[in-house]
Amino acid sequence: MLDNLLLGASTALTPVNLLWCFVGVLLGTVIGLLPGLGSSTGVAVLIPLTLTVEPVTALIMLAGIYYGSQYGGTITSVLLSTPGEAASVVTTLDGYQMARQGRAGAALAIAAIGSFVAAIASLVLLAAVAPPLASVALQFGPPENLAVMVLALVTMVVLTTGSTLRAAAMACAGVLLACVGIDFGTGQARYTFGSVELLSGVPYVEVVIGLFAVGEVLHQIRLGAATPIRARFRDLVIRRRDIRDSAGAIARGSAVGFGLGILPGAGSTLASFLAYGVERRVSRNAAQFGHGAIQGVAAPESANNAAANANFIPTLTLGIPGGATTAVLLGALTIYGIQPGPLLFDEQPELVWGLLVSFFIGNVVLLVLNLPLAPVFAQLLRIPYGYLYPLILFTSFVGAYAIDNDLFSVWLVLVFGVLGYGMKRFDLPMAPLVVGIVIGGLFEKALVQSSALLDGNLWLLATHPIAASILAAALLLLAGPALTRRLRRRTTPEGTHVR
């Protein structure tokens, strides 16, 4: 492996490739700041600019846009509760609360540190075990994917603050919203009410912008004029204790992100939600989640960066994209005349290892660029909200319109903004709804394929060891708390009060 890394370093460390790596990271950060644009759109739009350079240089720049946008999306999630990237949605839950408490700088800094550590750890694993892990990922068929989707839904429902029934209802509502559009099994339109725009389904980005950005603005307006945050500069800087408290969350988030990232189609969004759920489950301060827990920022940010890197395993070794952005990158590879697959590492070692080593360099650039600037970004919260709210609404609606140059996206943002306001008013959890929408389509696809594979008898999922193990974990997670309470009542002497 050392020889391969040296070969990659000799490719990635040329002045031209270093320059394009920096440009990619910088552009990616800016793209991530813009609600609705996202890394997949950014990469797709900028592919034509790379056609005049060498393929390895083009891929280094496009990959820089990919992971740069992950951090750019974090900035708006924390400061404005407006996710620039789908994978940053869960960061708003605690990141924005930290910002409201005057700790935006610490939230942004731990996001940068967590992303950097996760990226480096996942890249070491990527370089060491990419081909063997690809063969493991190949064992995941529709039954195993279905089990993963069930586990993700159960995790989010169980670990959401407040009523479990409300969380389950919101998750079901999200799955139902994901059913709008073309029926995967029959090819017929359903729940579109004659709308051509809805044939492709309810667009996820517009939903997220409406629920989180517009809904939050409407909620704050109802509460009254909030005073700008006047945090002292030293409060905006991350403390040693924050890093110590987040170390475990970063490690667990990296592991979850890498594990899900190697699965074709799982993507970094699902990884960030699952990492948040796991962290809340194991944390001693579970009650603080949703109210500004720094672990609630560190875990999902580590997970989405680790998943972003791990997504390249199925993309490069199998030619199967790990997520939306790697699907676009896969298209770019074919434009450059490169055929991904098991032989790519042997046939084009300079390109593959040069790209992998550029990940190391790009993440160092990302950390150096963003860590010192975290307190500076946080100064944005000093702007009076009378100026900030119109800015948030303007960027939200313009970002939505820019997705397809269609006013329908703007109307959707407005509708879901009102819905988000109503959910805040009646204390309905948003995270299960968003998870339902994100994985609803994947869940239905895996369900239909599994049903066809098992002749309509889903009980035969028990004959698939991996799927059965994952479903058993989901069942244990769902029934575990009730079983524990019942066991405690039986073991407690009669007449003793149990808390």
TrEMBL record:
Residues 18-434 form the DUF112 domain. InterPro entries: DUF112_TM. It holds the Pfam family TctA. The chain crosses the membrane at residues 12-34, 46-67, 105-130, 150-180, 318-339, 351-373, 385-402, 408-423, 430-452, 458-480. Keywords: Membrane, Transmembrane, Transmembrane helix. The keyword Transmembrane helix applies. This is Putative tricarboxylic transport membrane protein.
